[in-house]
Give the backbone structure.
Amino acid sequence: MKTAFISEKAKSAFNLNFFLSPVVGLFLTVGAEMIGYFTLMPFLFAFEDNAFITLCFELFAFAFISLAVILWARKVEISPWLGIGLTKASAVKDFLLGWGLGAAMLITCVALMWVCGAIEFVSFHFSPLFLGQFLILTLAWSIQGTTEELLTRGWMFSSLAARYNLPVGILISSLFFTALHLGNDAISLIPLLDLTLFAILACLVMLKTGTVWLIGGLHAAWNCFQGNVFAFPVSGSEAGQAFIQVRTMGPEWLSGGGFGVEGSVISLLVQSLIICWLTYDLFLKKKKPA
């Protein structure tokens, strides 16, 4: 288990308690979103009929939230870089590994849903134009996914774990992550459970790696493959064109319905298995003596 990021976060000038952390987190998120919206508004209006460009602007706008979190942590809390999970060492390698793992997780879920008869593959779309757009979207999803990880795991989880303990950090940061999605379309019980499980999984991955890079890549790939490889809604939001068109069949608890893969019990099962393995590896496995 790598907890150096928590030890470094404890060196901050202060770490907010579990009442104020969600408040400040929401303030940083909403404030940065408003700044990003008004900054990009002329471009959004100019390209409002172009779904691809609109989606790109919406995803790239998450960079404003990343900047807000970094400024708060570094300038207000006086936190070291490692304290928010940002390091130079192995950053690219871990991020690319995260992309691979996130893609594998999503493909596994889709394959199981297909085997269970919850979806069928309708058509395949490919063109040089869409391939170019997809490459841009991989960068856009990378910014979006890493931003959410920086906010909820890099900053909030490390802050609460440094002030209290790991269970408090995991619980509050995971509930906060889930709460950020309460306004999404097609939200229901299974998506809420799925979001919470993903948040717990992300905390455990950060304890495994000690940085946000791997889980940031995993989060980005999960969203990108869900929305622009397999044409599922991403947490209830349509993501535009995709390589593979799918049609959902059967009950929503199995197919995911309007929330996408995250609305399926298959996703709950896959994430639960990974959480069990990480829990064993981090907390229960007997370590060999040095």
Observations:
- Strands lie at 119-124, 244-248.
